[in-house]
């Protein structure tokens, strides 16, 4: 059995973890742990905002949508699993 190159997903699992080290998977709900300014939207996402149904796109980031902002990409280090 061969080992995939670094950074390549194994069966769709990127091995993404939240700020506490808990594994994240597609469809999880997460909570923001700090206020984040959203470039181009003129908005700030406040700490404690719940983001539902995330979709992992890499080992340290995911796609999501919130009220008023669609197509948002966030880094896993700014969230914790709900």
Quick synopsis:
By secondary structure, the protein is mainly beta. Helices cover 0% and strands 35% of the residues. The model is unreliable at 7-11 (pLDDT under 50).
Main sheet specs: 3 strands, antiparallel
The geometry reads as globular
Task: Let me know the number of strands.
Answer: 8
Distance between the termini: 35 Å
* Element-level helix/strand string: EEEEEEEE
Radius of gyration: 13 Å
What structural class should be given to the helix and strand makeup? Answer: mainly beta
In percent terms, what proportion of residues is strand? Answer: 35-45%
Look at the structure and give the mean pLDDT.
86
How many distinct helices? 0
* Portion in helices: under 10%
Q: Could you name the ranges where pLDDT drops below 50 across 5 or more consecutive residues? A: 7-11
Widest β-sheet, arrangement of strands:
4-1-8
Layout of strands and helices, then pairs:
Elements (H helix, E strand, L loop, with lengths): L29 E3 L3 E3 L4 E3 L4 E2 L3 E2 L4 E6 L2 E7 L3 E3 L1
Antiparallel strand pairs: 1-4, 1-8, 2-3, 5-6, 6-7
Overview of the molecule:
The chain has 82 residues and is mainly beta. It contains no helices and 8 strands. The termini are far apart. The strands form 3 sheets. The chain has a 3-stranded antiparallel sheet with strand order 4-1-8, with no helix packed on it. It has a 3-stranded antiparallel sheet with strand order 5-6-7, with no helix packed on it. A two-stranded antiparallel ribbon has the order 2-3. A hairpin with a 4-residue loop joins strand 2 (36-38) and strand 3. It has strands spanning 30-32, 36-38, 43-45, 50-51, 55-56, 61-66, 69-75, 79-81.
